[in-house]
Design a protein that fits this description.
The complex is a heterodimer of chains A (861) and B (137). Chain A is an alpha+beta fold and 861 residues long. Among the domains of chain A are: 209 residues, no CATH class; 124 residues, no CATH class; 87 residues, no CATH class; 98 residues, no CATH class. In chain A, strand 21 and strand 22 form a beta hairpin. In chain B, a hairpin with an 8-residue loop joins strand 3 and strand 4. Chain B has a domain of 89 residues: Beta Barrel (OB fold (Dihydrolipoamide Acetyltransferase, E2P)), CATH 2.40.50.140. The chains are: A alpha+beta (861), B alpha+beta (137). At the A-B interface, helix 3, helix 7, helix 14, strand 3 and strand 5 of A face helix 1, strand 1, strand 2 and strand 7 of B.
């Protein structure tokens, strides 16, 4: 059948490149494998050339896929599901990339893209390492390639094709309007593209229309992709029995991976802080944890690798850490994309029906390396037989616990194979040596990672063991309560360890150098604890004491490392990468501790809007602001001045004016909200005012429903004499006086007609008072009430009847009259320390990396 | 045994001890009926919003108070009143399932946190509907 208006060429080309990239990566894997194992020089050269060309073709295909996706999105070809699902005609061009990686297919593609770039760099610089390392990289590319192939094998979906047409994607299966004669059994209407609902796409989720969505995923996936490279060198080193030599290559790549992944994670945190409504930058959400954990293990690996370089120790630990770091990347991919996290994450995951494939990906990267570098033929056969043998049993029985067991067996097998093929030093480390304490620090990082990943994996254990265990009452505290001790120990080690020498340190040497920084830190830390008003009592005295201790230790880490640049390294910044990174890390810790423990809710309900505080265990954090009314909010007066809408998007900006009561800070914040009560409800983007020592952060939690039903509240009546009081929800009112007259100017009164005017004084609970004067006319025996409204109090008053010395007042509290917004506002002190710390850490890592690359070059020359 | 091994064992023991306490403090998924039977116990309950009853929220009376009627997602005869004291929620109407975290107390469910499950995207959606797709990763 022909469907007019469709553009099929870009999709056909795109799918051609999808298939080409998959085939090319398979050829590259095989050829690099042959180039590594071949003993004959000519064969090696031949295979290597074939492999290179395959990898280059694969890379070009991936770039082409990207280009074609951008074409489809920018041309608004909504016959393609990807364009329809992730973009719209009004989507600004800068968000086209965001809509590519909004979908699973696009994010796999992004990951794959970085592998291509890194792979091309390795081809250029790898020399003797090119063939074995690129075998691993090409194989990873093959696995990622299957994620976007979109075919069915034995009823099992393999990958999801980004170029699938909307009419072939199954979306129309339950939409009769899209079928001939409105019958689902009939084929799709040939003219479906001319239907109004096909004129525009779904658009990118409004929450994701944000510049962070454009830049955060590329960095995060660069981090993911670069974690493969240390892993590939470790596997290659074990495979060709040159582990010792491979370590030299690993170090700069591991540093690069830690910087890229670290930046990616912290960009996510900055995004969460700046534009999502988690109420902060870190929520221990499974998605955050899943990328933090590999980073922690990577850092552990970098430190044990330094130990190895200087003392020859800890090689086994180093190999294991880099292998595990990459595994954790793949495991996190499984966690976040399989839909298994379900109820425990705020991120909504779509299950693409690829769980088996994701499991197989994990299974392969766990078992294959061990088989590849097994100690001897016998061990290799054991690994191969077990790993291949389990698969059919797993498929037939489909026991989740068996799958987990098979993965654990693979982990043990591969780690065992890696450890048993490298030598160990039997003698004991000196406790005054740098390596002893560095190893403990690495171990802390590793254990911290293991604890976090086990806590995060709760839904996986539920699935495996058929249990129904839910996270504890305060899930964040479950993480914080243990990680605070990790922070304390790591901070002390960070401060002290650099002052120790490898192998052995003289005590006098150590004390002489560390004395001044220690005393300095103690003074500053004491001052901060004493005057910093850090009083986090919510979780009891032990936790408060731990926070103080951690605070002191992180200050120690900052000062000791800053001092070391001069005391230990004589100010030579080129050598000081480690110290700079540690200094930044100390600032990150301090920033986290101060900003979270001293986080202040500004929008506490302090004004007159009545809150039954007795019933509320949680602090009441929402505050309603009525337009034009200056409202008391703790240290500030806040006024909701006006709102403005963008013409293009259904987004409203609310202008809130903040005046500090001490007169020092006056600023305006404009948080925005997108309201669509039929679909997404309310989606709000906060606004923040940054001061050097704190941030004020505000977001909208509720606004009046624009489509709300008309006001249905009715008047209640009450007889009042002059001086009587009546109550309403926002306060009370006094009837000061009323007068009845028989003539009113311009009212065309007839004899016998009367007018009664009442004067009410209204006292609102926030201390403001108003005057209101409703009017009652009696013409020819008929009562006509003229209401008066106190706009800012939502109060409508009228007089129903007048009799002698009393009147019957009608009082109506309406919630329909005025414009208001409900907000939450927080103050985060010293949040800038956190961001500055991140930048300094990354600068430190880059300095180290540059030095290691230079050293390697010198070695090679 | 080397000193470093002793320290390793101590740290690992500490980690295991912590994980055990974590599991002991862990909560459970319960039904509405079970939550009612165990007042004061912190539980996770999977429910649906009772759309026949109004959601009670008035930003001008109390911007922190939200209350609605919830039906057990498995047993439609079991329902309870839910009180949430952290302000407005605009995703209740849309969600196919709500996971409530809190305690049953004095005839109502005092809820600390509500996790919403959005409808499975695109599987059955006709082209006339425009569901959103909040995948970040």
């Amino acid at each position: 059948m022909h469907y007019p208006g469709e553009h099929l060429l870009p999709g056909q080309l795109g799918y051609f490149f999808v298939v080409l990239s998959l085939v090319a990566s398979l050829v590259a894997t095989f050829s690099y494998f042959k180039a590594t194992t071949s003993k004959i020089q000519e064969d090696t050269v031949y295979w290597k050339r074939l492999a290179r060309w395959s990898f280059i073709i694969e890379s070009v295909s991936v770039f082409a896929i990207f280009g074609l996706l951008i074409y489809i999105l920018t041309q608004h070809l909504f016959e393609y599901k990807y364009a329809w699902q992730h973009s719209s005609k009004t989507l600004e061009f800068k968000y086209i990339f965001a809509s590519i990686w909004e979908g699973q297919e696009g994010s796999f593609l992004l990951w794959s893209f970085w592998h291509c770039i890194l792979g091309l760099i390795l081809i250029k610089t790898g020399k003797q390492w090119e063939a074995p390392v690129m075998t691993v990289v090409s194989f990873a590319q093959f696995c990622l390639g299957t994620m976007i192939i979109g075919i069915y094998i034995f009823n099992q979906k393999l990958g999801s094709n980004p170029f699938v047409l909307l009419r072939e994607s199954g979306i129309f299966d339950n939409a009769p309007g899209m079928h001939v004669d409105f019958n689902l059994a009939n084929p799709i209407r040939p003219d479906y593209l001319s239907l109004p609902q096909m004129k525009d796409g779904n658009d990118l989720n409004i929450l994701l229309q944000n510049y962070w969505m454009v830049i955060h995923p590329p960095f995060l996936f660069l981090g993911f992709a670069s974690t493969l490279i240390p892993f590939a060198f470790v596997v290659a080193g074990l495979w060709i029995k040159k582990s010792a030599e491979s370590m030299k290559m690993v170090l700069p790549w591991a540093l690069f991976a830690s910087a890229a992944l670290g930046v990616g994670i912290m960009m996510g945190a900055a995004w969460a802080y700046e534009s999502l409504n988690f109420g902060g930058y870190w929520a221990w959400d499974p998605v955050e944890n899943a990328s933090l954990v590999p980073w922690l293990v990577l850092i552990a690996g970098i430190h044990t690798l330094l130990i190895y370089k200087h003392t020859g120790r800890s090689l086994k630990a180093t190999l294991s850490f880099f292998i595990v770091a990459f595994w954790l990347i793949i495991y996190s991919t499984f966690l976040t994309r399989s839909g298994i996290l379900g109820d425990t994450s705020v991120h909504a995951f779509t299950d693409l029906g690829m769980n088996l494939q994701l499991f197989l990906f994990m299974y392969l990267v766990i078992w294959l390396p061990g088989i590849l570098f097994a100690k001897n033929k016998n061990q290799r056969n054991i690994g191969a037989i077990i790993s291949v043998g389990i698969l059919p049993i797993l498929y037939l029985l489909n026991f989740a616990w068996l799958g987990m067991l098979a993965l654990i067996a693979g982990v043990i097998y591969t780690i065992y194979q890696s450890s048993s093929s490298v030598p160990t030093i039997r003698s004991e480390e000196n406790t005054s040596s740098r390596e002893f304490w560095m190893f403990i620090g690495s171990l802390m990082f590793f254990l911290s990672a293991i604890i976090i990943i086990i806590q995060t994996s709760l839904p996986v254990f539920n699935k495996v063991f058929g249990k129904d265990v839910a996270p504890p009452e305060d899930p964040e505290f479950a993480y914080n309560s243990i990680q605070i001790f990790v922070a304390i120990i790591v901070a002390i080690l960070t401060a002290v360890t650099q002052y120790l020498k490898y192998k052995d340190t003289g005590y006098r040497f150590f004390w002489k150098k560390i004395l001044i920084p220690s005393i300095l830190s103690l003074i500053i830390a004491t001052a901060i604890v004493a005057f910093g008003q850090i009083d986090y009592v919510k979780k009891g005295p032990v936790f408060k004491a731990s926070i103080w201790l951690a605070l002191i230790c992180s200050i120690y880490a900052i000062i000791a490392n800053a001092s070391y640049i001069w005391i230990g390294l004589k100010g030579k910044l080129k050598l000081a990468g480690g110290s700079v990174a540690h200094l930044g890390f100390g600032m990150v810790l301090l920033g986290i501790l101060v900003s979270s423990s001293n986080k202040e809710t500004l929008s506490n309900n302090v004004n007159g809007i009545p809150v039954p505080l007795a019933n509320t265990e949680n602090p009441a954090e929402n505050l309603t602001l009525v337009q034009g009314l200056r409202t008391d909010m703790g240290k500030y007066w806040v006024t909701y001045e006006k709102d403005s809408s963008l013409s293009q998007k259904p987004k409203t900006f609310f202008k809130l004016k903040f005046d500090a009561k001490n007169g020092k800070e006056n600023f305006t914040l404009q948080p925005n909200a997108f309201v669509n009560y039929k679909m997404e409800g309310l989606q709000a983007n906060p606004d923040a005012k940054h001061f050097w020592d704190h941030d004020v952060f505000v977001y909208i939690t509720s606004i009046p429903d624009p489509e709300r039903k008309p006001d249905t509240s009715s008047f209640r009546s009450q007889w009042m004499k002059a001086g009587d009081t009546a109550f309403y929800s926002g306060g009370f009112m006094v009837l000061e006086r009323f007068v009845t007259e028989d003539s009113v100017p311009n009212a065309n009164f007839n004899p016998g007609d009367l007018a009664t005017a009442g004067t009410f004084k209204v006292f609102s609970k926030n201390g403001t008072s108003y005057e209101s004067t409703p009017l009652l006319l009696n013409r020819g025996g008929q009562n006509e009430s003229y209401t008066d409204t106190v706009l800012s109090e939502n109060l409508v008053l009228k007089i129903n009847k007048a009799e002698g010395n009393r009147i019957e007042a009608g009082i109506k509290d309406s919630d329909f009259l005025m414009k208001y917004v409900t907000i939450k506002a927080y103050k985060f002190p010293f949040i800038s320390l956190l961001w500055l710390g991140v930048i300094i850490t990354v600068v430190g890592i880059i300095i180290s990396m540059a030095r290691r690359i230079a050293l390697n070059r010198k070695d090679a020359a | 045994m080397k000193k470093i091994h002793i320290i390793m064992l101590v740290l690992i023991a500490g980690a295991i001890a912590f994980l055990v306490t974590f599991l002991k403090g862990a909560s459970t998924y319960e039904t509405v009926a079970q939550a009612k039977e165990n007042p004061g116990k912190f539980v996770h309950v999977s429910v649906k919003l009772d759309k026949s009853k109004p959601v009670d929220y008035n930003a001008q009376k109390d911007p922190n108070y939200l209350s609605f009627q919830a039906i057990d997602s498995e047993d439609s005869l079991q329902s309870m009143k839910v009180v949430y004291r952290k302000g407005a929620r605009h995703d209740l109407q849309l969600a196919t399932k709500l996971v409530l975290k809190g305690k049953f107390k004095d005839g109502q469910f005092e809820c600390n946190d509500i996790q919403t499950k959005c409808p499975s995207k695109y599987k059955d959606a006709g082209a006339t509907e425009h569901p959103q797709n909040p995948i970040v990763n």
